[in-house]
């Protein structure tokens, strides 16, 4: 699949609308606690400024439900963008009111206008064609650089793109890089290709697992989702997280892996606790010995060693989902060990999903990973083999 890219079209002196993903975490005082999503969009924004474009930027932020809400305003993001770009950022009073449109119409080359939170407009998530057209009318060129929302058919992601021909719309540098990485990894990985899947729920990752089985050499399952597989195999898992209705599906996945010769790894021991609590009494037990009423909240030491060993000969590692409740120090050891094992491997390593990205930052392995994806849901849908709605409009060749 080849998609149109920003450096392949003529944007010089044009008015450019860039959809970014500035949905950053903030604390209770509205301080941005992690600005990676803003920083990773700078390449595209600077490229437009350097090409004398007038730049209109749009993003969503949080989940406002009833129009304008101060706590969801992009004010803190405008400030951070100002600090990073070292130039004035005009923050529009809203998304598409007359005043905003007038500011957009008068925007000069080199100037940057940030629209207010896209989700203040109810039409955004409904992919309202009128809103999409109004946004499109603001600019000559549309750039999508919001990988994190490209799996959503929203007005500023999908609807807007319909109003531009292929010479006037493209993926920004960030989106192009993410798409290329995932397609390359899924379609032409260097082998052995190992996928590590963790996190809380099987349901959220079932499609991705199904699509991965025929493509990988090994699958390593950790986190809460492992217990559905372990229960399917007949183990007593106490009060550990489980999705009973998915047990037949878990069995099918394991049978399919066996048929295809894919090595399927599950935990052999866990850190079990009396309650879901950082103060709870906890101990390492083999999966045969999880006490009644206890829950497995991390992989155990034998499992960490086993998984690390299974990773040793990998040439490609795709990792999505932590091995335990890494937010609590007591249950973070397994995830930390796996993070170090992935980081110290000689494989191409791709980390996807917000939690896993957060985890490798905490373990200080971030710089050792080949690629950390900014979008969790979007990367899973790519692995599932779907064409993302926000990318579809930018395809030149299938
Ligand atoms: P997900 O959004 O599906 O990737 O899940 C991430 C979440 O899974 C994190 O917040 C972890 O705390 C949680 N998690 C990982 N392992 C377990 C477990 N054994 N039991 C409960 N929650 C878990």
What would you say about this model in short?
This protein has helices spanning 36-39, 42-50, 75-85, 98-105, 129-136, 155-159, 173-187, 206-212, 226-232, 247-260, 301-311, 333-344, 354-362, 376-383, 389-392, and strands at 2-3, 15-19, 54-58, 89-91, 112-114, 141-144, 169-171, 193-197, 218-221, 263-265, 269-273, 282-286, 295-299, 316-320, 348-352, 371-372, 395-397. It has 398 residues and is an alpha/beta fold.
Distinctive features:
single chain; 398 residues; alpha/beta; Rossmann fold; 6-stranded parallel sheet; 15 helices; 17 strands; elongated; binds adenosine monophosphate
Proportion of strand residues: 15-25%
Alpha-carbon Rg, integer: 23 Å
**Rounded mean pLDDT score:** 95
Overall helicity: 25-40%
Largest sheet: 6 strands, parallel
Which architecture of the largest domain per CATH? 3-Layer(aba) Sandwich
Specify the number of helices. 15
What is the CATH H-level superfamily of the largest domain?
Phosphoglycerate kinase, N-terminal domain
Which ions, cofactors or small ligands are bound in this entry? adenosine monophosphate
Which geometry do the CA atoms define?
A: elongated
Oligomer: single chain
Q: Stretches where pLDDT falls below 50 for ≥5 residues?
A: none
Counted beta strands: 17
What structural class should be given to the helix and strand makeup? Answer: alpha/beta
The main sheet orders its strands as 4-5-3-2-6-7
Q: Could you tell me how far the N terminus lies from the C terminus, measured between alpha carbons in angstroms?
A: 4 Å
Overall tally of domains: 2
CATH topology of the largest domain: Rossmann fold
At the first level of CATH, the class of the largest domain is Alpha Beta
């Amino acid at each position: 699949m080849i998609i149109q890219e920003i450096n392949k079209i003529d944007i010089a002196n044009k008015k450019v609308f860039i959809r970014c993903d500035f949905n950053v975490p903030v604390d209770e005082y509205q301080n941005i606690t992690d600005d990676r999503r803003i920083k990773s969009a700078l390449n595209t924004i600077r490229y437009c400024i350097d090409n004398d474009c007038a730049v209109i930027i749009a993003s969503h932020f949080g989940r406002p439900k009833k129009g304008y809400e101060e706590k969801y305003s992009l004010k803190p993001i405008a400030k951070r963008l100002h600090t990073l770009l070292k130039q004035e950022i005009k923050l529009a009073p809203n998304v598409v009111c007359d005043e905003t449109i007038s500011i957009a119409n008068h925007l000069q080359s080199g100037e940057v206008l940030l629209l207010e939170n896209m989700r203040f407009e109810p039409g955004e998530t409904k992919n309202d064609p009128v809103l999409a057209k109004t946004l499109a009318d603001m600019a000559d060129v549309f750039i999508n650089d919001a990988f994190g929302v490209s799996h959503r058919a929203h007005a500023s992601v999908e609807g807007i793109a319909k109003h531009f021909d292929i010479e006037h719309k493209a993926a920004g540098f960030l989106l192009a890089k993410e798409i290329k990485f995932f397609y390359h990894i899924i379609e032409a990985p260097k082998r052995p290709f190992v996928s590590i899947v963790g996190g809380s729920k099987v349901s959220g990752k079932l499609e991705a697992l199904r699509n991965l089985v025929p493509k990988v050499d090994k699958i390593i399952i950790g986190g809460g989702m492992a217990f559905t597989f372990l229960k399917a195999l007949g183990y007593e898992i106490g009060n550990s997280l489980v999705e009973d209705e998915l047990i037949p599906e878990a069995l099918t996945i394991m049978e399919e892996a066996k048929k295809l010769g894919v090595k399927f790894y599950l935990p052999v021991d866990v850190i079990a606790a009396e309650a879901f609590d950082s103060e709870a009494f906890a101990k390492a037990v083999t999966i045969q010995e999880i006490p009644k009423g206890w829950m497995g909240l991390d992989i155990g030491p034998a499992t960490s060693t086993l998984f690390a060993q299974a990773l040793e000969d990998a040439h490609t590692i795709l990792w999505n989902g932590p091995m335990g409740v890494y937010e609590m120090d007591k249950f973070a050891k397994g995830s930390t060990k796996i993070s170090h094992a992935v980081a110290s491997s000689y494989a191409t390593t791709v980390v996807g999903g917000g939690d896993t990205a957060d985890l490798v930052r905490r373990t200080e392995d971030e710089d050792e990973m080949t690629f950390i994806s900014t979008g969790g849901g979007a990367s899973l849908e790519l692995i599932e083999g779907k064409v993302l709605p926000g990318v579809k409009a930018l395809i030149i060749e299938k």
